[in-house]
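Recall that a protein's primary structure is simply its ordered list of amino acids. Everything else, from secondary elements to tertiary packing, is in principle encoded there. The following example makes that idea concrete.
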Amino acid sequence: MVEKRDIIEALRSCKDPELDADIVGIGLIYNIEKKGDDEIMVKLTMTSPMCPVTSLILADAQLRLEAIPGVKRVDVELVWDPLWSPEMMDDDLKYRI
């Protein structure tokens, strides 16, 4: 059975190469939903609609979630509502970046 902490840990290993910070800490993850024991749905955003590494981050998140033992289906959805803002970042990142 996949636990939410496993999902978050996998997403923390996914980094934005421009900011050199994980996508959870940046505040890009908007929703994590488990469907049954083997399906994961994640809604995430980017810091900007013009982010040049969007496809890299989406692919990396997808691959890392699919690598969680017991996961059979992963749906990663890119959303823009609400728009991301720096206030969504972990406090320690706000002062580092």
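The chain has one domain: 4-86. The longest strand covers residues 29-35.
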